[in-house]
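Issue: ligand-bound run for iron/sulfur cluster - logging full I/O for the record.

Environment: standard queue, default settings, no custom constraints.

Inputs:
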Amino acid sequence: MKNSKSSDSLSDFEEYFESIKNLLLQRFNNIPKAFVRTYGCQQNVYDSEKIKGILHKMGCSFVQTCEEADIIVFNTCAVRKNAEDRVFGNVGALKSLKKKKPNLIIALCGCMTEQDHVAKKINDTFPFVDLVLGTNSIRNFPEFIYEVLTDNKHIFKTKINDVLLYEGTPIRRESKFRAFLPIMYGCDNFCSYCIVPYVRGREKSRASDAILNEFSQLVHEGYKDITLLGQNVNSYGKNLDENINFAKLLRKIDSIPGDYWIRFMTSHPKDATKELIDVMAEGKHICHHLHLPVQSGSNRILNLMNRRYTREKYLEIVHYLKEKIPDISITSDIIVGFPGETYADFCETLSLIKEVEFSSLFTFIYSKREGTPAAKLEDPIPYKEKSEWFKDLLQVQNGLTEKICNSYIGKIVKVLIEGTSANKGYLTARTQGNIIVDLPGSEQLIGKFVKAKITDVQGWFLKGEVI
Ligand code: 5AD
Ligand code: SF4
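Outputs:
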């Protein structure tokens, strides 16, 4: 049975799910308990929801810790070294657990597993890992678990496959009102510091019909905040035979009736068009938020990063955005200490940040990724110095975030209530600009849109009251 499944129709998987369910019941003498830990970005969060969907179909229940679990899946991230080190540390810690519970099944998936040095390390150092699967092999997860259960050997299945094959596989979403919806997979941009194109493969867009149907279904199920995902959503449609681009897709989605918000990420500035901004401005459901990673404010560094836009082009997009959508919230990613970056280059990043006034930033110190072009560049600035620059960056951004937050005081904004806050007695909500608002209210409001009056600012979040 196990030799011919990878390209079969989905219905054939039912057969697998039944046999796997029985094999798992035999192995654990009970309903198997699964634990899935996700590292990294939203695409990984979505992939984990797919893995949980499959585990659920295999008859698993879910637990919150490794210690309670019969099946452990780590969905890994390779974007920076510290994420990778954390995974290695956490996998190492499973050795004693496997000794205590030899039946335990340990699986690793996600971006790390596609790299040769990681494959080698897992083979050499972590022989107790039962299954290693690549980023685009999620559809084959049942088949591989079947092999683990029947052959009782170490299974290693990486190498990038055709990701669109996982259309239609089951999903178990974390939230009842926020959802991720991938519109494309992979990346063709090869920014010189980035490992993603090597571990997620070439860019591939999903057919627009499949996306529109899934989106309508989510709205029908009551989802309120739906994020379209892709490494560069702005190049959506390039490999399709349809007359479509991202702006057109967004316009079609926006015409679906209902009370919901559309978000999307990530937008590469080189492909951000006026057409896209016009659709955002005219849309009924599109959040007035754009995550537009700039990475650096220096043209010399942007060129070394192979970003294919200039500081001037970036600022032009920002000015058009602000003109068309005055309440736009712009967020970004910044890398500090790219190889060869000087203090003067860094100061250009600071000046760009002050000019744009981002509502918040994701900031990273450059992390060398073997196999990328940047890994071959001279990198003379010591880490300690880069850390000092990094602190300066945070300080500047904190001031700007506070200024933007203060501008909300007294305003009435629509927010989506997401849950209870760490602030006792408060609920936590999000504006369409992705700013957090804490407000008192009944837990029955969770998952609902309300109007809130902003009354105060606490650091990087707002306080308000439901009106
Ligand atoms: N080092 C530091 N940050 C990186 N990013 C991607 N690769 C690296 C790296 N090698 C950051 C970029 C990207 C975000 C998702 O992660 O800012 O936009
Ligand atoms: Fe990495 Fe650049 Fe692709 Fe983003 S666009 S995933 S930074 S290569």
